[in-house]
Amino acid sequence: MQKKPKISFLIVNYDSQEGLVRVIDDIKVVVSGYDHEFIVGNNDVRPLNIARENTRVCENKENLGFAKAHNKIATIAKGEVLCLLNPDVYAPSENFTSLCDGFTNSEVGIMAPQIMTPSGSVQPWSFGNEITPLEILRTNIIKNTHHDKPTRKEMVDWVTGAAFMIRKEVFEKIGGFDEKFFLYYEDVDLCRRVRQNGYTVEINPEVKITHEKGQSSSDQKRQKKHYFASQHHYLKKNYGTAIAQTMKVLRKVTHRV
Fold first, then answer.
1. Are strands 154-155 and 55-59 parallel, antiparallel or unpaired?
2. What pTM does this model have?
3. Per residue in 193-209, pLDDT tens?
4. What number of CA atoms fall less than 13 Å from residue 230's CA on the CB side?
5. Alpha-carbon distance 73 to 40, whole Å?
6. What's phi and psi for 103, nearest 5 deg?
């Protein structure tokens, strides 16, 4: 009988098969010693053929978006810990699975690695303080207001969905991702609800992985549309309709969208 996996690696694919194979192979190098599985949610119309051990593909036959596709494959995951990975991350540090050690503290809900750019610097906007209407305004006025580079494991308010681990029981307790987010802000919203339920969100800079941000989206106009639609939903959900509408009007002035 096959052992129950400790970690379920969840990846949503959309036009990223080359990167998808790379991240699976890279993770397999550093995951030895842990029973694991890979589950891929394929948002492409074209079927995927991934011949890798302990890897299964869930064919969606349409683009369900990040949140809905992840919720779908999370329901069939058997691991105690879910590790979400973008198909455009690669080169995890050898101690990548040590993120699991953080869950020995029952208060920890999410553990994340330090996300690096291909040039070797910390990726901006990969984690930070709570995103509030004021913080959004500050970001538009003062660039590079992202969180300082951590030097040790610490609590943060949110981490990017490009790569993080979450207890499966916590993911289920909070109801997974809000599927009204098609793309963007679903990770910020998830982290907010994790914290509201009494768990911490932590980042460990000693564990790293590289991210080729935005490789699967070539349509910048569509990308921006998804981003601001998600921002609007996030603000409306957490700060009310009046604030969301006010920010929408301001955005028309600052971004002409």
1. unpaired
2. 0.92
3. 999 999 999 999 999 99
4. 23
5. 7
6. -80, 0
Q: How many residues does the chain have?
A: 257
Q: Which domains does the chain have, with CATH numbers?
A: 7-215 (3.90.550.10)
Quick one: which H or E segment has residue 86?
none
Is 84 within 8 Å of 171 (Cβ atoms)? Answer: no
Sign (positive/negative) of CA torsion 164, 167, 170, 172? positive
DSSP run (H or E) holding 38: strand 36-42
Please say whether the beta carbons of 130 and 226 come within 8 A.
no
- Cβ atoms of 82 and 8 within 8 Å: the answer is yes
Buried b (16+ CB within 10 A) or exposed e, 39-71: bbbbbbeeebebeeebbebbebeebbbbbbbbb
Task: Estimate the crossing angle of helix 241-254 against helix 220-239, to 10 degrees.
Answer: 150
Residue 128 to residues 22, 80, 189, Cα–Cα distance (Å): 28, 26, 13
